[in-house]
Amino acid sequence: MKVKLAEVGPEISAIVAGVMTWGDWGAKMNTSQIQNQIDKCVSLGVTTFDHADIYGGYTTERDWGAAWRDMSISREEIQIVTKCGIKYPCTERDYNLKSYQTTDAYITWSVETSLKKLHVDYLDLLLIHRPSPLMNPEVIAHCIEKLKSSGKVKHFGVSNFTTSQFEMLNSYTPLATNQIEISVLERSAMLNGQLDQCIQHKIKPMAWSPLGGAKMFQKSKEYDLVTLRSRLQDVAKKYGWELDELALIFLNHHPANIIPVLGTTKIERLEKAIASSNVQISDEQWFDIWTAATGEQVP
Ligand SMILES: NC(=O)c1ccc[n+]([C@@H]2O[C@H](COP(=O)([O-])OP(=O)(O)OC[C@H]3O[C@@H](n4cnc5c(N)ncnc54)[C@H](OP(=O)(O)O)[C@@H]3O)[C@@H](O)[C@H]2O)c1
User: Fold this and answer.
1) How far apart are CA 173 and CA 19, in angstroms?
2) CB of 53 closer than 6 angstroms to any ligand 1 atom
């Protein structure tokens, strides 16, 4: 199923495939494995792929693009999201220090580099990966307008922005989303105004680490995580779900129309996620999950 992210925003799939761990930062898929993964995602209706220039230490866009180039799926069938703005020292980039950059020249160069690596001639959505204390909204807006007029970027948004940072930039150029960490483990967006702001502006938030990331499933000695997970497992068992299903059902019930950006590299887990997006729950069941997650009754 496709959803419109915002009035001034792209149509994307209701579940997005996050590619952060497809390459060097995780599964290290080779070209044919990436092709197979893209093919399976598209056949399941997961047509939107969430990249960032830094994934894999600036290598994953290139590996993904090398696979995509030889596929027969048409460009219009998929949507590509990528991010820029983080300068991350690694073998591919000679930076001295991890820092942020949001100048016109840097964003433009970063978009052109991503397009080349991905073997596409436009991005459906460009996001500023993290807010920089030094960002100048007028400069960013001017740069984005140029990139839009050249056809290189169709839509623009942000990631990890506070409500005031979002408001500031949105007053210069329309933002299609705020991609933020939202999960049963990381619930602050539900209380700090980030999701309220998305509802108010009629845009859909994108949730990164929607299952709580790998730490939700790994054996951990961290006391808080172990007890939290066991409380969530009890609730999941009560309703006949597994932990990953519970995590998505929790997000789906929220009125902000949260779009999960799933990081799994396993197609069977993606299929399970699609099935769980059809599960309807009552508000009381949602609060049952909330209570297990917070460890206390609501006041
Ligand atoms: N904007 C940002 O700042 C930002 C930051 C981080 C991530 N992201 C985006 O968000 C995407 C998702 O992030 P994420 O990977 O942290 O999200 P996630 O979907 O919450 O977690 C995925 C991880 O959980 C594992 N997993 C999922 N289901 C499991 C199960 N049933 N049992 C055991 N392990 C399971 C996956 O392993 P398998 O692969 O083995 O299934 C994978 O390691 C990324 O790919 C990226 O596109 C954006």
Assistant:
1) 27
2) no
